[in-house]
Each structure stands twice: as C-alpha cells, then as structure tokens.
Amino acid sequence: xxxxxxxxxxxxxxxxxxxxxxxxxxxxxxxxxxxxxxxxxxxxxxxxxxxxxxxxxxxxxxxxxxxxxxxxxxxxxxxxxxxxxxxxxxxxxxxxxxxxxxxxxxxxxxxxxxxxxxxxxxxxxxxxxxxxxxxxxxxxxxxxxxxxxxxxxxxxxxxxxxxxxxxxxxxxxxxxxxxxxx
Length: 182
Hints:
Strand content: under 5%
Helix content: 40-55%
Number of helices: 7
Structural class: mainly alpha
Distance between the termini: 48 Å
Shape: globular
Largest sheet: none
Oligomer: single chain
Radius of gyration: 16 Å
C-alpha cells in the first residue's frame, strides 16, 4: 500500500553507497535558522550526495547549495507552475537530460539535484567555467540569457549575483567549520 504524499520520507530512497574517498573534504552545512523555520531542510545524506555529484561534475558545492537556497529555500517539495523541487527543474526543458540520467521522478530530492547539477555542469562547459554566465542561463535558459543579457553586454543577472553572493557566504561558513575541526 502506497503512503499518502505527505507521509512519505523523500530522503529514504538513496542507498548511500559512497566511499571515504568520495566524501573526503565534505563539511556539513548548517542551514540558516530562517530557512529551517520556513520548512527548509537539507539532511546530511542529501548534502553528501550533492557533494559527490559536484565533485564528479566539476561544479562547486557551495554554488549548488546557493542555487538550492535561492530556488527553493531548501524545500525539497517546492513547486511553481512548471518547476519542481530543490533546484526548481522544469521537466519540459530537460526531457532528454532526464532520460539520459535515468531520472523518472523530478520531485524526488536526489533525482532533482542530479538533474540540476548535470544542467549546471553543461552550462559551465558552454560558458568556459564562468559561473555568472552559467547561472544567468540556468535562470533564463541559454536563449533568454543571450537575448536579454549577453547580447546587450551584460555578463550576469540579479539572480546570478544573488547566488554568487550566497555561495560566498556559504563557503566562508564551511571554511570556518573546517578550521574549527582541525
């Protein structure tokens, strides 16, 4: 018998079969209190999974965490009219990617993050590692980013600037925690 949607544990679906080499350097990120109070959560298993995928895809962990914060406020079940989950994925824009990755449930936190990191990785390759351009395209699509920003000489948008600012704050917090651990 299937559990009602609100009773299912969205985080219990991951096997957590990563090795010590995969998680070397991982530091747990403690969410800001205001996000916790508004229903945000990012359990350690989800963070380790995200960290491993970031390493495999050459994407900065703190920037992905900042995208999650900006897009969904750490709410795995966030929904807009067309976008879903932590990274606010629009399935209609990612059918081929989802099929290639074996993603069948974009509302699953792990599959959502996998799709978002894969997309961000692709954009970083397209824009030669330029996070501001990649994040602008993440937010507006490559066509929209070119039409509304890049063709007008702008390197980024307010969304990209916000994510980068938040990523800087997250990185400082993680580095502070790393120094405490030593």
